[in-house]
Amino acid sequence: MNLLLMFGWCRQLSWSFAIMFALLAVPAQQDAQTQTSEELQRILNRMDQTAANFKTTQANFEWDQYQKVVDEHDKQKGTVYFRRAGNEVQMAAEISDPTSPKSVLFTDSKVEIYQPRIDQVTRYNTGKDRAAFESFLVLGFGGSGRDMLKSFDVKYLGTEKMDGVEAAKLELVPKSPKVRNTFDRILLWIDPARGVSVQQQLFEPSGDYRLAKYSDIQLNQKIADTVFKLKTSGKTKIVSPQG
Fold first, then answer.
1. Hey, how many other C-beta atoms are within 10 angstroms of the C-beta on 87?
2. Which phi and psi (to 5°) does residue 234 adopt?
3. CATH value at residue 174
4. Tell me, what's the pLDDT at 34?
5. Which candidate, 12, 13, 23, 54, places its Cα nearest to that of 144?
6. 235: domain range?
7. 209 has pLDDT over 60
8. What's the count of helices (H) and strands (E) in the chain, helices before strands?
9. Fewest C-beta in 10 Å: which of 136, 144, 166, 169?
10. Which residues contact 142 (CB under 8 A, 6 or more apart)?
């Protein structure tokens, strides 16, 4: 029952009825909160199970970068790969843009973007921010629910159907003020059967957002080592904007 509406009714009733309605509303609220808490815990537990057995993930993706100032969408498609290597998670992505194909690789605390058309690798060293970067990287792909709670305040928002999957929708708010300067809110849609993300939306304080949809998700299948190596030439130029 909506509390504001209830109190509006109470003004027109005797105090005895007002007290009765208030008492009746409390158990309903508690039941709803308990159910929401149980659903969230169930999803987090499923993510923990997936993380405990995680070796690799491969999926097709559609990325949409929206810029509010110019009201413009930059959409890209391709394939993304994740694997656990020792204590780190590695990521590789092949962006199949016919006009500007790219390969993205995250290994050894470095993000590298290869543009074959100009035969150039742009390299970024995540350095001391590696842990924060990886926490974003593994959201819904090998990251555990327990670890997610360390970095984010998590709220369960119900379910939404995504490509035939009744996905659990979670809202994440970063606990770190520094991280909130980059993304102040994140939405995850988790497949409750597999404990992986089928969609993600990351919101920036400016109003820009990044929406990612994943399909044909394959868990713990063998991925060749060559996937996690950039296919550069002997003349590839390497630039490091951070110096």
1. 5
2. -70, -10
3. 2.50.20.10
4. 54
5. 54
6. 47-239
7. yes
8. 5, 12
9. 166
10. 50, 51, 54, 57, 82, 84, 89
